[in-house]
Amino acid sequence: MPRALVTNDDGIDSPGLHALADAARDAGLEVIVAAPAEQASGASASLGAVRREGRTIVARRQLPDLPDVEAWAVDAQPGHIVVAALNGWFDPAPELVLSGINHGANVGRAVLHSGTVGAALTAGISDTRALALSLDVALHPETDERHWEAAAGLLPRVLGLLLDAPVGTVLSLNAPDLPPDELRELKDARLARGGVVTTQVADVGDGGLHLGEIEVADEPEEGTDTALLAAGHPTLTSLRSVAEADGDLVQKWLAGEDAS
Question: From the CA atom positions of the chain, what is the Rg in Å?
């Protein structure tokens, strides 16, 4: 089985990261963990890092219940970690990137801003297969109990699809925060227009803005990842990273310029 980098944007101490590393190891993957030393949500595919004398700061860590797994805390964003891992940090380089399990769903076009998804997309543009995993935790959950096993338990099934897919394939898996036996059928899902949470300016004061997060109240469009997830279905979406759009707009404009 391939060598897999496990990372996230919630940080090295996130229980979702540990659950994913455990599931990946149980699936037979050779696992290396490298994750932000601190929370890095909303980082998208940023390459930001803390450097000392030009070097990104890293430190060896031991994960609870995973003493045999090589793990690193990195003072950097997930995208930076993926670039480093695939370009000389580890020898041999990972053949697969698993990012998550994120505390909160990553759905809709808002996945653009997710550090979890950003790590996977960064792998994709480096011709590396990647999977982002997220758990649909409410913005203000009623209990502290999280069903990480709901997302982790889907890994072996989705892993088979990913390993058979072309290099550079990026998948995003979202699971309801429910016991595994309460999950409905896994569904292929298209992205909703927005996410489940949006950011708004709460107030404007002298010298600054206060931004707050609120849950989206609009009814999600039928068949989208947001709607299916709300109905209890895990969702799987194939994502395409940076690529050129249809060139008709520019071609027509240039043709008009030439004619004039």
Answer: 19
Question: What total number of domains does the chain contain?
Answer: 1
Q: Output the pTM of the full model.
A: 0.89
Asked if 110 and 21 count as a contact pair (C-beta separation under 8 A), the reply is: no
Q: How far apart are CA 152 and CA 17, in angstroms?
A: 10
- 173-218 residue pLDDT tens: 999 999 999 999 999 999 998 766 666 677 788 878 777 766 766 7
Contact (CB, 8 A) for 129 and 163: yes
**Residues sharing a CB contact under 8 Å with residue 171, sequence separation 6 or more, in sequence order:** 120, 130, 131, 132, 158, 161, 162, 165, 236, 237, 238, 239
Residue 54 lies in a domain: yes
- Phi, psi (rounded to 5 degrees) for 55: -110, 135
**Does residue 207 lie within any of the structural domains?**
no
Domain interval for residue 70: 3-192+220-259
Domain of 104: which CATH number?
3.40.1210.10
Cβ–Cβ under 8 Å, residues 58 and 75: yes
Please tell me the distance from the alpha carbon of residue 76 to that of residue 122, in angstroms, as a whole number. 14
Tell me, yes or no, whether 176 lies in a domain.
yes
What CA–CA distance (Å, rounded) separates 19 from 202? 35
Question: Six-digit token pair at 129?
Answer: 């297969």
137 within some domain: yes
Query: CA 5 → CA 182, 203, 230, distances in Å?
Result: 30, 41, 30
Contact present, 76 and 36 (Cβ < 8 Å): yes
